[in-house]
Amino acid sequence: MTVFSHPDDAETWSGGTIAKWNSLGGESLITCYSEEETREAEAKAGAKVLGASFITLLSVESVMTEIENFKPDLLITHHCKDSHPEHREVFQLVSEATVHSKIALGKPQMILSASSYNDVLLDGIFEPNVYVDIGEFMPIKIQAIKEHTSQPIGMWTDMVKVQNKSTGLKLSGAKYAEGFVEVPILGKLFNKSLF
Fold first, then answer.
1. Residue 58's pLDDT band (boundaries 50, 70, 90)?
2. Residue 193: its pLDDT value, please?
């Protein structure tokens, strides 16, 4: 499950990971905040390319409800020091919403925070500690981003190609990779690999 601020955030920051997860038999739910009909339609189209479901969130309570309904093993969201203020707000909402679900349901088991624009955070450069090789899923990620026709597609696709190639250079044999930082849940980290 992803909880992001804007309709194209899931594709931009974790589209390859979502596509890879689904290719291995996983099920994904993309969520974001939007009240614009055009952007919601684009988000649904992008999610479909990745093989995921999509819903719009309206409040903190709706985040809690969707976590409780979907019971994700893995939840991906923004970084707490993201350069975009709305991204930081969503990170805070997710942090608050997951405490209850972790205690009540044991879910999610793992929270990952994604990078930001050009890997630049408020306090420095994004340094992932979890990597996902998305080489074979990069074309799917790019196609999902292209579904957001109301947005500056060329700017976003150029950025993710550079970022994901740079991250891929940190892995042996990976052309493209997405990087994340694991977020402790109630003071604990998950002790298994993602893939």
1. confident
2. 73
d(CA 38, CA 35): 9
Q: For each of the domains in the chain, give its residue range(s) and CATH number, in order of start.
A: 2-183 (3.40.50.10320)
pTM of the predicted protein model: 0.95
What does the angle CA 103 – CA 109 – CA 110 come to, to the nearest 5 degrees?
Answer: 125
**How far apart are alpha carbons 77 and 9 in whole angstroms?**
9
Alpha-carbon gap, residue 62 to 19, rounded angstroms: 25
Distance CA(169)–CA(171), nearest Å, equals 5
Q: How far apart are CA 109 and CA 101, in angstroms?
A: 10
pLDDT, residue 11, reads 98
Contact 120, 81 (CB under 8 A): no
